[in-house]
Amino acid sequence: MHANERETMILGLVAERDFVSFSELERVMAASAATIRRDLTRLAQEGHILRVRGGVKTTQPLPNDTAANLIGTRRLLGVPFQENQQLHRTEKEAIGKAAAKLCVAGEAVMIDGGSTTLQMCPHIASLGLQVLTNSLHIVAGLIDQPDTRILVPSGAVFAEQNIILSAFGDDGMPRFHAPKLFMGAASIGPLGIMQLDIILVASERRFIDRADEIIVLVDSSKFSAPSGHVVCELERIDTIVTDNGITDDTRKMLEAAGVKVVIAA
Fold it and tell me: 135, 233, 141, 237: which is closest to 190 by C-alpha?
């Protein structure tokens, strides 16, 4: 993560919370303590924040709606959902169906927003799942299923992806732990799964922290997509569900990292 991206996260978090602890900055930013201290020193010298015992605080508290607007008016990087939904549609539908077969009736799962994870919805109606999701598209796909219980976090709605994100803190996330997390990715490579926008990275890391098993749903084009910010390493992933366009070299790379590869029929 570059210095300007770290500073944006720090300023946004302080604006949203008024005070943030140093330990939370370490956890959310996935940077070294020395790096964060240098960032904080620079921002304090420029008058943007105040260093206080245990953390930092804003120099001038903002109204709640103003702090929220710092997040809610920001556009996420990447392809808008409606456009992305039409790309590789046949492969995504098959991947969603295959991923749904990994669910166990009656269990609690998390389904991260995405055009591929959305395709799970019609195939889990009979399972009586409890689903935590940040996607309004997935909520719409599940809302008519009488046996599916839906939970959503609080936060700002990002209209171009139709997802709810608490960009920097996790206070809006329900106290929830699940045996499985189903998520997508902008790209996958030797460093792990990646997203283009740092706000998505922070949100998905919070989901990962609440799951026992990480299941990633991606069509094979994502293995050659441009890289981005690393969400987690390959070794943290348990299963990848993809299509038969995956190359032998890519499959060997994943299996060498201990990832189970499921090919959707």
Answer: 233
For residue range 6-58, list pLDDT tens digits in order.
777 787 777 666 788 888 787 767 678 889 889 999 888 888 888 998 888 87
Answer positive or negative: Cα dihedral of 192, 198, 204, 210: positive
Encode pLDDT of 183-230 as tens digits.
Answer: 999 999 998 998 877 777 878 888 898 999 999 999 999 998 777 778
Cα separation, 265 vs 259, in Å, equals 19
Its sign, for the CA torsion 210, 214, 218, 224, is positive
Of 127, 72, 118, 74, give the one whose Cα is nearest residue 96. 118
Q: Which residues of 196-225 are buried (b: 16+ CB within 10 A; e: fewer)?
A: bbbbbbbbbbbbbebbeebbbbbbbebbeb
Identify the residue with better confidence: 30 or 179.
179
Q: Give SS3 for 185.
A: coil
Structural domains of the chain, with CATH: 3-72 (1.10.10.10), 81-263 (3.40.50.1360)
Yes or no: say if 29 and 6 are a contact pair by the CB < 8 Å rule: yes
DSSP 98-146: HHHTT--TT-EEEE---TTGGGGGGGSTTS--EEEESBHHHHHHHTT-T
Please give the Cα distance from 197 to 256 (Å, whole number): 28
